[in-house]
């Protein structure tokens, strides 16, 4: 099914028949990204923007007309925490050259788009050139808000060296992941400034740092706090001078609290956060970017130590989301954080149903659309795409899905995108259509 879609897409792009100045979608039931009600409306797209929304709209001359026949029209989904470049197994990554990493990423990009994700925020990886290739139409995939390499201290979450590596005091020998710019290690204010500025030089829309231990990294304990306050502030200063923000990998109260004091604007994961920490985040308008699927369906390629650490932080999820509800915390986005498992990426839409344990369908859909768009806007001047994302609204970018069924009533329909995503449009271009006249 996927191969047939890709072949059809390639032929249509070559012939140019999938792009039109105007596309009018009629007789849709519209979920606008915010409302709890579907509205019977028509949507007119001009070039890459939603030009008009209403009932009984008339098609301009030469427009392509799509009869939605009552299907649900939704904004394209946003995965606010993903790793499009990091989908080789740990061992395969160590044994492969950067070209193979890149070729693998093109398949991941296709999978994500065909799952309905028209936008992703890449939270560690050398995805700059992949973004450029997608933006130029050379590769099929979602638009990317790149962080570049996640920056951590020596012995931190980005440090993938082995015992056989000599100390950085006597050698600059790097891990493969660092050598390929998938991660970065920096110590002290000067090095953190440089690492952040290097990411911004390449076009990062935000800077990612690790301020606590990680599950997928081999050595650092979960409970440690990484980076001094001054080092964190160095990254925040560099990003702020560029008009954007810093996202921080953190699980624990201690790591999150220090990151907030430094001026970080999004906390990635936060599994072990207490209600007091969530209230502090809320007071400082800090966003929470949690994930469920990666802590529920462990990537198959993890080793025993990685699985043990992942299991430890996974046990915090229920308390986290209970605390979110108690605190009335609203700044939550949708993400998957899948690494080293291309097969799991194909099933990334199960994140929708995993979240249903704690959130209503409306809340989950808002996290994957309008809330994600609000959070992406933190990039400010460094946003790589002009226009509103995550909404069906006049003037918003034309990222549109037509869905068989009503996801406001049943999120499980989204776990079968091959069958239930009848149309996928990104930036005004149709990448999949299973509609018939």
Features:
eight-stranded mixed sheet, 437 residues, alpha/beta, 19% strand
Largest sheet: 8 strands, mixed
Strand content of the residues, in percent?
Answer: 15-25%
Gross morphology is: globular
Q: What is the oligomer described by this structure?
A: single chain
Query: What is the end-to-end distance?
Result: 21 Å
Helix content range: 25-40%
Low-confidence stretches: 1-19
Strand elements, count: 17
Instruction: Give the rounded overall mean pLDDT.
Output: 94
Q: What does this entry look like structurally?
A:
There is one protein chain. The protein is of the alpha/beta class and 437 residues long. It is built from 17 helices and 17 strands. The strands form 4 sheets. Strands 1, 2, 3, 4, 5, 15, 16 and 17 form an 8-stranded mixed sheet that branches. Helix 5 links the parallel strand 9 and strand 10. Helix 7 crosses helix 8. The N terminus is likely disordered.
Question: Summed up, what is this model?
Answer:
This protein has 437 residues and is an alpha/beta fold. It is built from 17 helices and 17 strands.
Q: How is this fold's topology laid out?
A:
Blueprint: H1 2-15, E1 22-30, E2 39-46, E3 49-54, E4 64-67, E5 72-75, E6 77-82, H2 90-95, H3 98-114, E7 117-122, H4 128-135, E8 143-146, E9 150-152, H5 176-179, E10 183-185, H6 188-202, E11 207-210, H7 229-241, E12 246-250, H8 253-262, E13 266-269, H9 275-283, E14 287-289, H10 293-296, H11 304-314, H12 317-327, H13 342-346, H14 350-355, H15 361-368, H16 370-376, E15 400-403, H17 417-420, E16 421-426, E17 429-433
Parallel strand pairs: 1-4, 1-5, 6-7, 7-8, 9-10, 11-12, 12-13, 13-14
Antiparallel strand pairs: 1-2, 2-3, 5-15, 15-16, 16-17
